[in-house]
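Hello again, I could really use a second opinion on something today. I've been staring at a protein lately and its backbone has me curious. You're getting the sequence in one-letter code plus the fold written as tokens. I'd be grateful if you could look everything over and explain what you see. No rush at all, and the record is pasted right below:
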Amino acid sequence: MIVESGTKAAKIQKFLGKDYVVEASVGHIRDLPRGAADVPAKHKGEAWARLGVDVDNSFAPLYIITPEKRSKVAELREALKSVDEVLLATDPDREGEAIAWHLLDTLKPKVPVRRMVFHEISEPAIRAAVENLRDLDQDMVDAQETRRILDRLYGYEVSPVLWKKVMPKLSAGRVQSVATRIVVARERERMAFVSASYWDIAAQMDAGADATPRQFGSRLVAIDGARVATGRDFGPDGRLKSDATALDEAGARRLAEALEGRDLTVESVESKPYTRKPYPPFMTSTLQQEAGRKLRFSADRTMRSAQRLYENGYITYLRTDSTTLSASAIDAARSQARELYGDAYVPDQPRQYTRKVKNAQEAHEAIRPAGDVFRTPGEIAREVDGDDFRLYELIWQRTVASQMADARGTTVSVRIAGTAATGEAVTFATSGRTITFPGFLRAYVETVDDQAGGEADDAESRLPELTKGQSLTAASLTAEGHSTNPPSRFTEPSLIKQLEDLGIGRPSTYASIIKTIQDRGYVWKKGQALVPSWIAFAVVGLLEHHFGRLVDYDFTAAMEDELDAIAAGTQGRTSWLSGFYFGAEQGSEGSVARAGGLKKLVGVNLEEIDAREINSVPVFDDVVVRVGRYGPYLERVRDGQSQRANLPEDLPPDELTPEVAEQLFSVPQEGRSLGVDPISGHEIVAKEGRYGPYVTEVLPEPEAPPAAEGAKPKKAPAKPKPRTGSLFKGMSTETITLEDALRLLSLPRLVGTDPETGEEITAQNGRYGPYLKKGTDSRSLTDEEQLFTVTLEEAVEIYKQPKQRGRRTAAATPPLRELGVDANSKKPMVIKDGRFGPYVTDGETNASLRKGDSVEQITDERASELLAERRAKAPAPKKAPARKAPAKKPAARKPATRKKAPVEK
């Protein structure tokens, strides 16, 4: 039996015993070549070799065994020699079906081969799967292969355009480019947004001493029958877009004063029953969204944790578009709900959830606890902790709640009327909600997105019993001002929801998409929000103007439909790819064919693209952001002269205001002159650079040596490299003096010569802080001032001490900030200052703060996420090599009468 992971193989081996050999392929064993070096020699001369797809021969893919999997393939071939049947038990989706096909096509077993599918790793499920084998599904394989080829054609044709016109090492992708466009489009809305201010009146009403509660809040909603404007009545340009009445500060304060002491009357009371049905069980996308909102997990962190839970037999398969539960799972959820909460909390009939999903994958169960009897979180607490425990608890709660009774209660809406002393008729409104039976809310409440607003399902707001015509008094009347807010940035959960709503991508790929756009530098995180970089603006601008169809939302979603048609066997793979790559004239009709053909699109547009125009992002007035080779910068023209300014990498685009730009332009690019070095006679200046502030000397331009009469003029010698020195912490370009600058430029400083070895010892300031250097041996200094004060005797003494690894003074240095307890290690977290900058640590794992993270604002959840990502990237401990038995020596000839000693194997 061949599965995909070693963890899964070890667990299944225990279930099946010695009659089975369970091996792991560790994912794909073959793929398209990643570069020219991977292309086999016999194909290197082919025009299509760089693509790895023979576009002129039915788009035949060129598969190679990836270098890191050659030893694995050899192991599997060796294992095949001693078996009488092969079960391909890879994951139960298109990717798993394709891996199984690659294994079959590569290993070419001479024994019978069957496909085995299971959705949870439990002994009953595995044994049932062994009894229900099937053949490979070639349509599923074709669907996956078509996607792989499509993504290769897209990436390998469009990415080089970005290299030539924007910046090297960028990438384009069928879904990643559209996801980047969504984030950039939201930032553009924020940049164009004009805030509007409006006022209303908050009133605290008093229903009398007999009422419970006696006081309750309400707000002014109408004046003389005209609705009072709220935030939704204003457009993104700051203008009122409806016929509502906008109150200003003076009007609101005047009206509040005119209402003091006036009689108010309950105009209407409307009561309605409140019912809330439970949420369906998790599928991949909703699990990623809710884990992001409730646990603050990134999509990638959620999927890594879910993968561990699945492989260890705690949950069912984690990649699914289904909300369906099996009959045994429904019984398990209902039994557990009844046991924990009572009969009243379980409806008479089981709940069935069906979901017609656009672009849905094969029908699986929803994500739920494994087995016919669910294990409660308390029962697995000793086996699972950290991220995995919290995610299991979330899945368990949602699954049990899905089979519980509705929450019931009452909602009440009240309108209160009165007349101001100045004659205006006013109306106040308030609402309340009371939950009389919590139902499924006892087990689970979905988290409301912080940025989306809204009210939690279990939130209550009680009002006193009010009747129409009842008199009220206003205990307080307060005029309150408000400002409209720009649309919220996407978070990982909200971006996943947006992709899903648009029908773009697959739930199983959302995590990798979001990780890719961050790894490529297109998007970075500020807290939980996703912020696009200026490089993303340039890339998206290029794709929108010259490859608009490729990043069109409807077009990308239509591709998903057509790929599904291939999976269903109703669309031809070759004709579809031909239409996408060559255009309609050589392929079938369809949305991709109508794009004109990718090959032609790239060829026609490449020379027309003006790189300078693409890399210029207008922001306001005559100010543009240029995306240059060394990063983004500001540029404008003043009095016919071009002005430039460095742009901080961690400044979100919507925070680049005219005031901020003016401040950046005020920093002279040529630097602040500090004076003249009395020894060299060169001017010393302080500058702001891409990597921080520094001082440098201004060297004169070298002159060309005189040439002999009639000879060709000689070239000027190359300009020597000026001395530079980074500013220490606490220094700034505005306050640094010439004396300080000259000290910095004096580094490295010769401390002296080691009397024992004769080697020179120097004090230097490096990327990781101040240090001593003797030959190739470096030793850290405790602070920057030591660079100028350390003596030869002190340096020799430092070198006599054993060399310390890691951060030499980390333990002695007080933390910059103390945080809470890490959710995984259960140890307190602190922020420390290290050689690479600030980092979070729990005493075992260190993780650098990222772009957008600040020491002052980072949350416990974000710190735990950074630590979890760092642990996931840490290399697995190497296994000790198997101990080989010593080579046998030739046995000495012994007398025939002497028997051989028994050999123990």
